[in-house]
Design goal:
Blueprint (H helix, E strand, L loop, with lengths): L7 E11 L2 E7 L11 E4 L2 E4 L7 E7 H6 L10 E6 L18 E11 L2 E7 L2 H4 L7 E4 L2 E8 L3 E6 L1 H6 L10 E5 L2 H14 L1
Antiparallel strand pairs: 1-2, 1-6, 2-5, 3-4, 3-6, 7-8, 7-12, 8-11, 9-10, 9-12, 10-11
């Protein structure tokens, strides 16, 4: 489980295509805290750490993940949001996230708003039905509050701390982003749908 509070802005060292997927190697100051087989969220995607080095780790990314996430567009030198899995005695500071990306959105607008920055993201209606104003959404693994939502897009407002510590600081129109909607909304829909039958 993750919370969407980014712990490090890592750098993709290499992306190596493999039969049936890719191997991603990421440089990060979090590497000493990882053990082989640990889960780590990379731009909101839960991956398994392998081949640990003093300042890096690798992870295998299967085709299913490449098809459902923006990791397919990862390139050498790209910045990525990283978060270690939440420990049982940890503080839940963002919101409950699984690291299971629901879909890919596209940044359509970035506008200054006082000390903040408003970012508009287009997404499929199948995802937006789980998005509510003032609710939570994970964008590239960052726990954010929805400022507004309509039929084909939503807006988040980012404080300077988020802009400095995450890839959201370089968001620009056309940028693909991983989206994970609030898991509680999906469970509620399923339970209520079963009850209505």
């Amino acid at each position: 489980m993750f919370t969407g509070l980014v712990e490090d802005l890592g750098t993709v060292h290499t992306v190596a295509a493999m039969g049936g997927g890719a191997r991603l190697t990421v440089r990060t100051r979090l590497a000493p805290q990882l053990a082989e087989g640990d889960s780590i969220a990379v731009n909101g995607v839960c991956l398994t750490a392998l081949d640990l080095g003093p300042g890096s780790f690798s992870a295998d990314v299967m085709n299913e993940t490449l098809q459902r996430s923006a990791l397919a567009a990862a390139t050498d030198g790209a910045a990525v949001n990283l978060e270690l899995a939440l420990r049982a005695d940890g503080r839940l500071g963002g919101h409950i996230m699984q690291g299971h990306v629901d879909g890919v959105g596209t940044v359509t607008a970035v506008q200054p708003d006082g000390l903040a920055r408003r970012v508009t993201i287009a997404a499929e209606p199948e995802l937006l039905r789980y998005v509510v104003e003032k609710g939570s959404i994970a964008v590239d693994g960052v726990s954010l509050t929805v400022a507004s939502v309509d039929a084909d897009r939503f807006v988040v407002s980012l404080i300077p701390e988020t802009l400095v510590r995450t890839t959201m600081g370089v968001a620009e129109p056309g940028m693909p982003v991983n989206l994970e909607v609030d898991i509680m909304a999906k469970y509620a829909e399923k339970l209520l749908g079963a009850h209505a039958r």
